[in-house]
Amino acid sequence: FGVPLETLIQDATQCGVPFLVTQMVEYLEVFGLERVGIFRISGSVNKIKKLKQKYNQGEKVDLVNDGDVDSVASLLKLFLKELPVAVFPDNICSGLLKTFQGTERNENQENNLRQLLSCLPKAHQNLLQFLSAFLLKVATYSAVNFMTLENLAIVFGPALFK
User: Fold this and answer.
1) Can you tell me which residues the record assigns to a coiled coil (predicted)?
2) What is the pLDDT of residue 12?
3) CA pair distance 72, 28, nearest whole angstrom
4) Are 147 and 139 in contact (CB under 8 A)?
5) At what angle do helices 69-81 and 19-31 cross, to 10 degrees?
6) 20: which DSSP letter?
7) With left for phi above 0 and alpha for psi between -120 and 50, is residue 63 left, alpha or beta?
8) In the 8-state DSSP scheme, what is residue 89?
9) 13-22 residue pLDDT tens
10) How many other β-carbons are positioned within 10 Å of the β-carbon of residue 143?
11) How far apart are CA 64 and CA 12, in angstroms?
């Protein structure tokens, strides 16, 4: 936690995403997709603190026995918030704001967006792609968990953009 993504890539899985992120997402895919308000309800402060400490000390983390859906979901958001450089760094954020200032969608915006995303560091691109796929999966359960894409954007926006 609090370490640049590029540093964690040494620990990454085959998709180029830090192991702890894949571990948390896999847990949430199994146990959390149907959880009402996943990512909105805060987890146990003590559990989050203990799990974070284990990850930081390089210990083996058993989310099934030591965690719960709300604590793991909170821990994932905390990891993203504590990145020293946000998934969308400042230079990309200003470009995104300029691209989407107008209210009308057009082909130029799409091209600008593709260009901006291609400027993200590879570690950030990998994490964004992985998280996007997961959050789309969460949203497919919105009839049960009430987490639409809009709700997920509200919850994750502050963690992805600083």
Assistant:
1) none
2) 66
3) 7
4) yes
5) 150
6) H
7) alpha
8) -
9) 668 899 999 9
10) 8
11) 21
